[in-house]
């Protein structure tokens, strides 16, 4: 198939064709760093794929754990049609493991092919999905244009675009317009995001809310939760969840100040990336610290507990009455505040919350507080909540109620996707 479209895409396609002979080597190198599943490496090349299930097949693609988890309620809703199957693709080992544990019947997971023309063609020709739903913003040009060329209906769902990404795309307007207009439908998380997609040439753009607002509460193993509660033994907790480099250095001094008046305080740090566990333990310096990745539990002498394990965030949101949510003191854009709020855990965060603007605004408005800029402001709000249980409960309830008002995106997404499939049938 001859490449058409703007110069930017033609250049990209030529580059990926030239890169193709190196793909196996690249996969082997990534596998040595545990970035690929060796047993399933051929999936990334569009080879050794399992049989396509009969009937209508909806393809849902998310980059990693966050996008795939957000899509779970949507997948459940799509599978209400008993004649339908769902194919889920993602690009990370952790998301593949999680999907193997959480996908319902009639849904299967595959690794997304590397965005090489031959690999994506093998993938698309084998699966022949009736529609492709791309979650958030993980858009691969060869995959998208290949699907469009085969008549596959495409939708961007839970669509997200930061102001920074928008500014970058404006320098390649023709390429952006060609890529985004390949989607028949764009379901944006809010009005501002919808405006950005329209400005770049996306078609049929609608603001319908975030799928993450409809996600079920994060799970927690009951036995592990009971064990943790026994280890903590009722101590007051300062929880900092999903922290990024530069944020632990702000939380730790705050905990030092708080311990002057709350001497039995336990600080729990949950890094966004678990491989940072040893680094955070070093940051603790002379503070007595323990790491969960080493199968350690906090005891009466532990000042800082580093929770550097995968898939256990639900434990800690159930353990604390409030949490600082990371990625917000730095220009990352903030991690998902709905996860703690849905578990009756009040939310504190820095000023950089553009990944979840609507959710943070709703939660802060309901709580009447929560925005922090410094270690001192964290101390001020945390001390009030640690010393006043009634105030902590009020904020926790307010956060949960705010999270509850943001739902409904799953139902609106399903309606739009059904309409898209119906239009294809009429054609």
Describe this structure as you would to a colleague:
By secondary structure, the chain is an alpha/beta fold. Helices cover 44% and strands 15% of the residues. The protein is built from 18 helices and 13 strands. The strands form two sheets. The protein has a seven-stranded parallel β-sheet with strand order 3-2-1-4-5-6-7, with helices on both faces.
Strand order of the largest sheet: 3-2-1-4-5-6-7
Question: Low-confidence stretches at least 5 residues in length (pLDDT < 50)?
Answer: none
Please estimate the helix content: 40-55%
Q: Supply the number of structural domains.
A: 2
Q: What's the CATH superfamily of the largest domain, by name?
A: 3-Deoxy-D-manno-octulosonic-acid transferase, N-terminal domain
Radius of gyration: 23 Å
State the separation between the terminal residues, measured CA to CA. Answer: 24 Å
CATH hierarchy, class of the largest domain: Alpha Beta
CATH topology name of the largest domain, in short, is Rossmann fold
DSSP helical segment count: 18
Give the overall silhouette. globular
Query: Mean pLDDT across all residues, rounded?
Result: 94
CATH architecture of the largest domain: 3-Layer(aba) Sandwich
Structural class: alpha/beta
Short note summarizing the structure:
The protein has 18 helices and 13 strands. The protein is of the alpha/beta class.
Task: Compile the SSE list and pairings.
Elements: H1 7-19, H2 23-32, E1 56-61, H3 65-78, E2 84-90, H4 93-102, E3 107-111, H5 117-127, E4 131-135, H6 141-149, E5 153-159, H7 163-169, H8 173-180, E6 185-188, H9 191-199, E7 205-207, H10 222-232, E8 237-243, H11 248-258, E9 266-271, H12 277-283, E10 289-291, E11 304-306, H13 313-319, E12 322-325, H14 338-341, E13 346-348, H15 357-367, H16 375-387, H17 389-404, H18 409-426
Parallel strand pairs: 1-2, 1-4, 2-3, 4-5, 5-6, 6-7, 8-9, 8-12, 9-11, 10-11, 12-13
Helix pairs in contact: 3-4, 3-18, 5-6, 10-13, 11-16, 15-17, 16-17
């Amino acid at each position: 198939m001859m490449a058409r479209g703007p110069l930017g895409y033609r250049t990209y396609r030529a580059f990926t064709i030239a890169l193709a002979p190196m793909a196996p080597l690249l996969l082997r190198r990534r596998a040595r760093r545990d970035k690929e599943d060796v047993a399933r490496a051929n999936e990334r090349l569009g080879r050794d794929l399992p049989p396509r299930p009969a009937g209508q097949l909806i393809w849902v693609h998310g980059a990693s754990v966050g996008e795939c988890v957000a899509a779970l309620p949507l997948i459940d809703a799509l599978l209400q049609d008993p004649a339908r199957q769902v194919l889920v693709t993602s690009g990370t080992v952790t998301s593949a493991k999680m999907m193997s544990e959480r996908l319902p019947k009639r849904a299967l997971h595959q690794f997304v092919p590397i965005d090489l023309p031959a690999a994506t063609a093998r993938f698309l020709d084998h699966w022949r999905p009736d529609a492709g739903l791309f979650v958030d913003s993980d858009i691969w040009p060869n995959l998208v244009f290949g699907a469009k060329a085969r008549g596959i209906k495409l939708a961007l769902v839970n669509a997200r675009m930061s102001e920074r990404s928008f500014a970058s795309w404006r320098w390649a307007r023709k390429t952006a317009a060609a890529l985004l207009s390949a989607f028949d439908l764009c379901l944006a998380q809010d009005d501002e995001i919808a405006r950005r997609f329209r400005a770049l040439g996306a078609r049929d753009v609608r603001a319908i809310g975030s799928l993450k607002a409809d996600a079920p509460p994060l799970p927690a193993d009951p036995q592990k939760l009971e064990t943790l509660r026994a280890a903590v033994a009722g101590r007051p907790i300062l929880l900092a969840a999903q922290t990024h480099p530069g944020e632990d250095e702000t939380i730790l001094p705050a905990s030092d100040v708080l311990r002057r008046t709350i001497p039995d305080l336990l600080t729990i740090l949950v890094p966004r990336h678990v491989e940072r566990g040893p680094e955070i333990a070093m940051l603790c310096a002379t503070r007595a610290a323990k790491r969960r990745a080493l199968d350690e539990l906090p005891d009466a002498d532990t000042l800082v507990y580093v929770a550097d394990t995968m898939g256990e965030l639900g434990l800690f949101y159930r353990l604390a009455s409030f949490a600082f949510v990371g990625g917000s003191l730095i220009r990352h854009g903030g991690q998902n505040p709905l996860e703690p709020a849905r578990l009756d855990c009040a939310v504190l965060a820095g000023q950089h919350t553009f990944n979840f603007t609507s959710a943070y605004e709703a939660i802060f408005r309901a709580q009447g507080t929560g925005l922090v800029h410094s270690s001192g402001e964290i101390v001020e709000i945390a001390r009030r909540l640690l010393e006043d249980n009634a105030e902590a409960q009020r904020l926790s309830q307010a956060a949960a109620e705010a999270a509850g008002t943001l739902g409904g995106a799953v139902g609106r997404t399903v309606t739009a996707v059904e309409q898209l499939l119906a239009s294809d049938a009429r054609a």
